[in-house]
Amino acid sequence: MPKRHIVQCARTVGPGYGGSGPTFHLERAFQALGCGCERFSLADLGIFTQAMPEGTPLLALLRFWRDVLVFSTLGSLILWWRYRKRPPGTVVICQVDALFGDLFVVRALHKGFLANHPQRWLMLLRNPLHAFVLARDHIRFKGKVHKHFVALSKANKEQIIQLYQVDPERITVIPNGVDLRRFRACPVARGEVRGALSIPAADLVAIFVGHEFERKGLRIVLEALRMLASQGTRLWLLIAGRDSPDPLRADFADLAPTVRFLGNLPDLERYYAASDLFVMPAAYDISPLVGPEALACGLPLLMTDVGGVRDYLEDGSNGLLIGPDPGDLAEKLTRLAHDPVLLASLSARARPSVADRDWPVVAGRFLELLDRLDL
Q1: What's this model's pTM, rounded to 2 decimal places?
Q2: Contact criterion met (CB below 8 Å) for 238 and 271
């Protein structure tokens, strides 16, 4: 059989989140396993953008929707034209948007997102592009666009079946990976970051990572911290993400001494290393990459039961499931703050729980799937 050549399709490719980061890490892992690799991205259409477009919130949103619309339409046509006739052993893996490819990795389910949004009808009325994405995904899942789908978790697979009645035999679960060499405990970084932020070495530190503060539940975290402060329990919070901190900073000015808004962090692993636990009470997410990253750094997770979280968070073993409300989160944070034995036990089981998620292992599972499908 000819050497396998893998074409990955994503709006952008590079270290990060969304479809960009996993595509980048899979590419490196495929290459290490002897595969030829090729990219198809917005750059092929003459659009040079970022995984998370920058600028004012409105401008960033307009650029994001432009990228989705162009890659879904023009990108699909050019991708089809370029690879409609391809030599044996060449496989197209579509990570986002485009309506072409042998495999489609389901990194977002817009129908599921809207179903969980309290203002979904208003969103549909205000922005017709939501309807466009729903129509595009209907074609994707109801038609014969792709030979097979890759879901990121068992819950993700069940939601695809529920929303679009896809044959379960056409869906294989392969989770997101994590770079175990980058994300790990690092005492040196822990000391350096805490020193730079003036955080005492013995104090308890939580970290929140997410680019959409409201959807990822940052307000809930801050309300829980306010409850802890009223009880005399001090907990520091590091916040990494692109969203503007101004509204929350104003609403929770009383927490300013122990809350650090850090913006987007290219060296996020150093801030994981400086923390003691990870917290994210998201309202909706398919399979947050940040969870396995935090576990790889030895951090217990406090996360809501959304998307594929249960695939890596074992309640009471490497973290605690939380409800989407400040009271429950405050109770569990208080428990960990006053029970160092429990915290140490959860921490000790964190990294081993993601040992099978290294990117080369995940890439190997993709290759096994391609063998099984005879692609």
Answers
A1: 0.91
A2: yes
Start-to-end C-alpha separation, the chain: 11
Q: Which residue has the tokens 């920058």?
A: 54
Query: Mind listing the pLDDT tens digit for each residue in 30-62?
Result: 999 999 999 999 999 999 887 666 667 778 788
- What 3-state DSSP class applies to 287? coil
Residue type, 172: T
CATH architecture type of domain 5-177+358-372: 3-Layer(aba) Sandwich (3.40)
Distance CA 198, CA 189 (A): 14
Residues 218, 259 contacting (CB under 8 angstroms): no
The domain locations on the chain are 5-177+358-372, 187-356
Please state which architecture CATH assigns to domain 187-356. 3-Layer(aba) Sandwich (3.40)
* DSSP output for 343-373: HHHHHHTTGGGGGGGBHHHHHHHHHHHHHHT
The side-by-side arrangement of strands in the sheet containing 148-151 is 36-40, 5-9, 90-94, 103-106, 148-151, 171-173
Common-topology check for domains 5-177+358-372 and 187-356: yes
